[in-house]
Amino acid sequence: xxxxxxxxxxxxxxxxxxxxxxxxxxxxxxxxxxxxxxxxxxxxxxxxxxxxxxxxxxxxxxxxxxxxxxxxxxxxxxxxxxxxxxxxxxxxxxxxxxxxxxxxxxxxxxxxxxxxxxxxxxxxxxxxxxxxxxxxxxxxxxxxxxxxx
Amino acid sequence: xxxxxxxxxxxxxxxxxxxxxxxxxxxxxxxxxxxxxxxxxxxxxxxxxxxxxxxxxxxxxxxxxxxxxxxxxxxxxxxxxxxxxxxxxxxxxxxxxxxxxxxxxxxxxxxxxxxxxxxxxxxxxxxxxxxxxxxxxxxxxxxxxxxxx
Amino acid sequence: xxxxxxxxxxxxxxxxxxxxxxxxxxxxxxxxxxxxxxxxxxxxxxxxxxxxxxxxxxxxxxxxxxxxxxxxxxxxxxxxxxxxxxxxxx
Amino acid sequence: xxxxxxxxxxxxxxxxxxxxxxxxxxxxxxxxxxxxxxxxxxxxxxxxxxxxxxxxxxxxxxxxxxxxxxxxxxxxxxxxxxxxxxxxxx
Lengths: 149, 149, 90, 90
Prior knowledge:
Oligomer: heterotetramer
Number of helices of chain C: 3
Order of helices and strands of chain A: EHEEHEEEHEEH
Radius of gyration of chain C: 12 Å
Number of strands of chain A: 8
Distance between the termini of chain C: 36 Å
Low-confidence stretches of chain A: none
Order of helices and strands of chain C: EHEHHEEE
Strand order of the largest sheet of chain A: 1-4-6-2
Helix content of chain A: 25-40%
Number of strands of chain C: 5
Mean pLDDT of chain C: 95
Helix content of chain C: 10-25%
Largest sheet of chain A: 4 strands, mixed
Number of helices of chain A: 4
Largest interface: A-B, 35 and 35 residues
Shape of chain C: globular
Mean pLDDT of chain A: 94
Strand order of the largest sheet of chain C: 2-1-5-3-4
């Protein structure tokens, strides 16, 4: 039931909401999270490159949305994750979860992004304005967030 | 800092995201919640009418967004609440919260909708397909959700 | 300081509006009324509709000058006092 | 059942790709290797780049046939085995 896309192009948030809810009158709430490329005051990121494991990525995301659909009564969910080079301010990821009641929609949204952060095969490389580049390190806080569920 | 609107017209989700994030490169995540008019399988809602207390509504919402901005480092937030007659499937409310980190964005989004449900002067009247009408009763679960924060 | 003769503006919303049959009325502050709770008792005696609106006082919420208020909140001449059920927006 | 002579496809991502200097290589399943952990030890001896990629094995994650795997996961001829750092998407 989930819509999953891994793509270089940006996504159209309004169009994704419209597609998720089209023809539904049983939805009471839609949760959403959008992750964006954040510049840092000390070390401005000029670009972020998202690498992934193409043969595995969509399967891994589908495993995560399947789990969300098992845990909550969802009426639909959407995960779009961009790959390739992205500038500061650009969108990285869109998560949408629709349910009859808001708590399920909000919890599923938080669950989906927490698990995407720790269980989908993407890697971020930051390139800074001064020419330096480094792979983003995984954060313990992300593991802890994913382990809450 | 918050954008607050109480209006009869629908809102444009994509445009609201764009307005919230325009010119920002310090945002890492945006949380969003949209509430919609839900039909019920047993007693389909044909229309919902949202009444409010015009002199108080925006002030009450500003009190809620101020509280969110005190509790989390937000880079912006938006609350749009519709009033008047709405059909099943229509949007009722939009909440957006932008922050450097996703947990603040997600928590502030949940806080804003929980408090809106219990602290902003709106009242819903349901009209059913069979002509019956009734004021929606406040839910203990909503009070409990608001009291978590 | 408001004029001590300024009337109260009383607003009713949702089913309180339907039961009282009015969305707004202007009344002088009764001589022996100084709190929201006292005003409710006074208003409930105005008409059968008012009595019906206030029959379950635990189901009624109040705002004084657009701020949520409690039965013990003091009221003054010229205040805008709104009565309504627990809110159900969002 | 895969051909017992089918080579393994080894994939490297992120800094493992940079350190090994390759994104993909095809190797026969070594005779004495039956698990991911055994394969890592064998690969680490292939070149200085490979050694550098696997120097901190706790920092390396693995998938066998596109499913996350552990050091004790068994491998078979023809498997696709990917090595990468902890993921950082989202």
